[in-house]
Automatic annotation (TrEMBL):
The lineage of its organism: Eukaryota, Fungi, Dikarya, Basidiomycota, Agaricomycotina. Pfam families: GST_C_7, GST_N_2. CDD domains: GST_N_etherase_LigE. This is GST N-terminal domain-containing protein. PROSITE patterns: GST_NTER. Residues 8-99 form the GST N-terminal domain. It comes from the Eukaryota.
Length: 249
């Protein structure tokens, strides 16, 4: 049995950078499921997924289908599936004898965490553009620039906040993560994870965002060094604790 995980390549050693795909990679490694990564360039995603029968995950403004990573193919069941939360639920259902991504009937709670966290983490995104584009292969860079500049209505270089806006937005990001830190503290459980000693979907969400930043900015970047110190080192400790599930195959 081997699960194929579809991801977008980059020029970064180890190549895995996408936060969306990291959610699924964490799940596969956590459950100990044999898998391999198949790298697909960004502009080739749609044609590749349509050919394979991988479902679209959303609609564009013009009504056309949008295809995104992560996506998987499970050779044991013959299932093609996309979208990280759907994949996580599938893996728990298909492989119930492995560690649960949603333990103790927490699926609904963790879906709520995902929605709230997604809103709070939004300020980090402009800081990672255009740095993310610079880490892509030449094949994907043009696609990334064209689609992102259309999305933002400005050049990639003008997307990151500057001057006092940069200071304000970075402080907002830190404050927002302070809210998430409070959620972790409220559990009252010892250990680095939301549920204490047991990793789960919520931790994979947070870990995926921060490994994205760490890979794109670099281990020794000012941004990552600052985040490491936030909230008594909470996020560095979380990422360190998740390191055993960061294998890229």
């Amino acid at each position: 049995m081997t699960i194929t995980l579809y991801d977008i390549p980059s020029t970064v050693p180890g190549r895995a950078w996408s936060p969306s795909v990291w959610k699924t990679r964490y799940c596969l490694n956590y459950k100990g499921l044999e898998h391999k990564t198949e790298w697909v360039e960004w502009p080739d995603l749609e044609t590749t997924f349509v050919k394979l029968g991988i479902p679209a995950t959303s609609k564009r403004a013009d009504g056309s289908s949008r295809y995104t990573v992560p996506a998987i193919f499970d050779s044991t069941t013959g299932v093609y599936l996309a979208e990280s939360f759907e994949i996580a639920q599938y893996l728990d259902h298909a492989y119930p004898d492995t560690p649960r991504i949603f333990p103790n009937s927490t699926t609904g709670m963790q879906k709520g965490f995902q929605m709230a966290f997604g809103s709070l983490i939004e300020p980090i995104v402009p800081f990672l553009v255009p740095a993310e584009g610079e880490k892509l292969t030449v094949v994907s860079q043009e696609y990334f620039r064209r689609t992102r500049e259309k999305m933002y209505g400005k050049s990639l270089e003008d997307v990151p906040p500057k001057g006092q806006d940069k200071v304000r937005e970075w402080a907002k990001l830190k404050d927002n993560m302070g809210v998430v830190n409070e959620w972790y503290c409220m559990s009252g459980n010892p250990g680095p994870f939301l549920l204490g000693e047991t990793a789960s979907w919520a931790d994979f969400l947070v870990g995926a965002i921060f490994i994205w930043g760490k890979v794109i900015w670099g281990d020794n970047s000012h941004e990552w060094k600052d985040i490491e110190l936030w909230h008594d080192g909470r996020w560095k400790a979380l990422l360190d604790s998740l390191s055993i599930y960061q294998r890229v195959t």
